[in-house]
Hints:
The protein is α/β, with parallel strands linked by helices. Helix content is 46%, strand content 14%. The strands form two sheets. The protein has a seven-stranded parallel β-sheet, sandwiched between helices. Helix 5 (139-148) runs parallel beside helix 7 (171-179), helix 6 packs parallel to helix 8 and helix 9 (217-228) packs parallel to helix 12. It starts with a helix and ends with a helix. The model has no long low-confidence stretch (mean pLDDT 94).
Amino acid sequence: xxxxxxxxxxxWAMRLATPALLARWWWRxxxxxxxxxxxxERLGFYACAxxxxxxxxxxxxxxxxxxxxxxxxxxxxxxPGLRLLLTHTTATGREAGLELLREGDAQTWLPLDxxxxxxxFLRHWRPQAGVLMETEVWPSLQAAALAEGVPMxxxxxxxxxxxxxxxxxxxxxxxxxxxxxxxALAQTDDDAARLRLMGVPHVQTVGHLKFDIRPDAGxxxxxxxxxxxxxxxxxxxxVSREGEEAALLDALxxxxxxPLPAHVLVVPRHPQRFDEVARLLSASGRSLSRRxxxxxxxxxxxxxxxxxxxxxxxxxxxxxxxxxxxxxFEPLGGQNLIEAAACGCxxxxxxxxxxxxxxxxxxxAAGAARRVGSMSEAIQAASGxxxxxxxxxxxxxxxxxxxxxxxxxxxxMAAAVMATITRRCGTPA
Length: 429
């Protein structure tokens, strides 16, 4: 009774929040027009004809969409006739998802988690199974999927200790949603243990999909060519989050009134922050150049660079001598460090990597990354590395080995997904 009441209250809360959420996406559409595309899909209404029998995969944003690419390749290898329904929540995720589509596939927004919207979504598309990436478990969606007989798999699943504690505070709502999952495919044994504590009935540890993402060789090579043409080294703050750019500038204060020891390249995590970060960097009084203004290479006359482009991280890692891991210098859990290792870029991590605990520990143990306690410590450690080519080469080689050693999660996940479909639905369509 308590679970049914909690689910009903959640449904009403989401209904009441719907106007505000739609308004928020419309507002974000000023800078990212993709948010204003087909907004009725957020409510579970569709202009296109249904395509029953597809495999539905939800990748909320850009990071999850990129992680889904090797999984989809492995799924198509096992079932060449696979038809895909791809859903997203963010505009950057939907744009990146276009590259994953083939003839016969479909793409739409994930509907808001109201009972009516998710029911309309499932009855329109009638997928043979649903695959949710990483952490996306929604109470109304899980309840509707169970009612409609759609098996749900959480792929590349992760659950931090912090998220588990938060989930316990909403136990009456989130535990039933977790229990309705057919299967969770966890990144690590620790993630698997926490998912079981959350209530997921069947969990397998299969590894991290992002090890199977190979950096774009052309972008990586271009970055290295650009670096070879520079006289000064390059320090990268990769996929930075709120507060970290200001902390970086504060940590560079000892060089006030004199040139920085390297070009400092900042690549914000979210594109809507590009202009905000540009204003912050310009206010430091140092010269600034934006990636969007570069021609055949970076502006060697500027001390600060802003990476205001999407899907070019291999280029930035190829350009950098040392990288600082964004999201780890504020209590935000850190960003994906696997890509830096695969690109052979020496990496310094801050104290907050709880979203990637095991990957961070393994990277540090392999010698591909080092841990520092603060942004100021990171600048000091980076200064040492910038003057120690031998140490940088050793970290780069360790990164290549670390990334290569842990590949293979995509094939294991694909096999588990296809087995689930076969077991619950018969032979895949």
